[in-house]
Write a structure and sequence with these properties.
alpha/beta, Aldehyde Dehydrogenase, Chain A, domain 2, 2 domains, seven-stranded mixed β-sheet, six-stranded mixed β-sheet, 15 helices, globular
Length: 489
């Protein structure tokens, strides 16, 4: 049972507001507010426990103890618990979608139809992969060689404020499948569905201490978690500056660390492509107010189709409905937080002052956290809006004369998470696939992928790879047992 003082009624959904440590919900002396972007000033959703170094110490201690149990579960036993959690996620779809819509303004219909379902799929995927895995065995040098995955130990999992529920499941599932205990630290801007997930994990049967949740401000509790020398894995999705701090802490304790850090991704359109389809896909990069790390935010269009592309793009963008995330007719949600909305506006206003051309939009919208759908044609490829991630409904537009220039422009930032290419030529698609510096490249499509494929970026878009066995290997220590062939039973 949860103490009623650690529960909040979020529009009819009961949400824990404390930390889950060692199988019990506990509070903190202080709290922080979770407010809804749908009505910031008058929509306080919950006061959430504000963890600190003491909280972090208790959570890691609980994870150390929980690992002693969970790490000894067989793959089949782990899979059984994870499938139960997936069942519970599916049964709670409506509540999770509604709370996440209120907490960070993600489109409720999209949450219900895609992202909550994807959360369940993530747990099922890793449950099945851990059971299907076959240890590598071979004979060499008169010895039987056997490579075994060992659970690594307590893992700190730090997740971002955008699409928080789905991204939490994407990172927690492989850590748990590998046999690690976890301490989940969600972003303070959207903490509520992480608590719903933790509550379902208890119901699914994760043993005490195997699944822990710590709420709070990153600099206060997250920093203490990643600096703890009992932690054996750290995985993070978020900003580059925060990743640098976490990386230093991980290095101090020689702890493997993965980071997915966003991108400044090109969407490249050639004259031989389906221009209508490309323009439609480009306009849909405004989805979720551009708060998607994989979005193609740099539109690179072949010069010969400039006018046609822009005409089609503006028509598609004009058709997008900006509104309340709870309304199924809405295409573009509010931004997640006033601080972030103002940060995005700062990029646009500096671009305007710098002499970049504001082709459309470029202003905050009155009485909401929406921002106008904005397109900027920079005066130079060195412009800030080209080189730095904005993470809002702001795209840039540039043209190129030929394939070589397209590749040069695409590869001209420090980022390298994804790229989108529209072309009618399979040969060109192959060349671009080989030449572009990005971890994921889509040709004539977007956001469709096999979840067992490696996921991650190049440059400052991150280190390491998630997805399938890549994530399971990260969360394990590999050992090789070598037995001389003449060993008798």
């Amino acid at each position: 049972m949860i103490d009623e003082s650690l529960l909040a009624d979020v529009d009819g959904v009961s949400v824990p507001t404390g930390h889950l440590i060692g199988g019990a919900w506990v509070g903190s002396p202080t709290t922080f507010e979770s407010r809804s972007p749908l009505g910031w000033d008058d929509m306080l959703l919950a006061n959430v426990a504000r963890g600190d170094a003491v909280t972090a110490d208790a959570a890691v201690a609980a994870a150390v103890e929980g690992f002693k149990t969970w790490g000894r579960y067989s793959p089949a036993e782990r899979a059984e618990v994870m499938h139960r959690l997936a069942d519970l996620i599916e049964a709670s779809n409506e509540q999770i979608a509604h709370v996440e819509c209120l907490d960070m303004a993600f489109l409720e219909e999209s949450m219900r139809l895609r992202l909550v379902a994807r959360g369940a799929i993530n747990f099922r995927l890793y449950a099945d992969l851990i059971v299907e895995h076959e240890d590598r065995r071979w004979d060499a040098k008169d010895m039987d060689n056997h490579v075994i995955r060992m659970p690594a130990g307590p893992a700190v999992v730090i997740t971002p404020w955008n699409a928080p529920f789905m991204l939490s499941t994407w990172k927690l599932a492989p850590a748990l499948a590998a046999g690690n205990s976890v301490i989940h630290k969600p972003a303070e801007w959207s903490p509520l569905t992480a608590a719903l997930l933790a509550e379902l994990a208890i119901e699914a049967g994760f043993p005490p201490g195997s699944y822990n949740l710590v709420q709070g401000i990153g600099s206060e509790v997250g920093a203490a978690l990643v600096a703890d020398d009992r932690v054996r894995r750290i995985t993070f999705t978020g900003s580059v500056p925060t990743a640098r701090l976490i990386g230093k802490a991980a290095a101090e304790n020689i702890v493997p660390f993965t980071a997915e850090l966003g991108g400044k991704n090109p969407l490249i359109v050639f004259a031989d492509s389906d221009i209508a389809a490309a323009a439609k896909k480009a306009a849909w990069q405004y989805d979720d107010s551009g708060q998607v790390c994989l979005s193609g935010t740099r539109l690179l269009v072949e010069q010969s189709i400039r006018a046609e592309f822009l005409e089609r793009f503006h028509a598609e963008a004009d058709a997008l409905v900006i509104g309340d995330s709870r309304d199924s007719a809405t295409d573009v949600a509010p931004m997640a937080h006033p601080v972030h909305r103002d940060k995005v506006d700062g990029f646009v206003q500096r671009a305007r002052a710098n002499g970049d051309t504001i082709v459309r939009g470029g202003n905050k919208m009155v009485d909401s956290l929406h921002y106008e759908l904005t397109l900027i044609e920079p005066k130079s490829n060195d412009s800030e809006v080209v080189q730095n991630e904005i993470f809002g409904p702001v795209l840039t537009f540039q043209t190129f004369a030929n394939e070589a220039e397209a590749i040069e422009l695409a590869n001209s930032t420090q980022y390298g998470l994804s790229a989108i290419v529209y072309t009618g030529s399979r040969e060109r698609a192959g060349r671009l696939g080989a030449e572009l510096r990005a971890g994921l490249i889509w040709v004539n499509t977007f956001l469709v992928r096999d979840l067992t494929a490696p996921f991650g970026g190049c440059g400052i878009s991150g280190i390491g790879r998630e997805g399938g066995d890549h994530a399971l290997d990260f969360h394990a220590d590999l050992k090789t047992v070598m037995i001389l062939d003449n060993t008798t039973t």
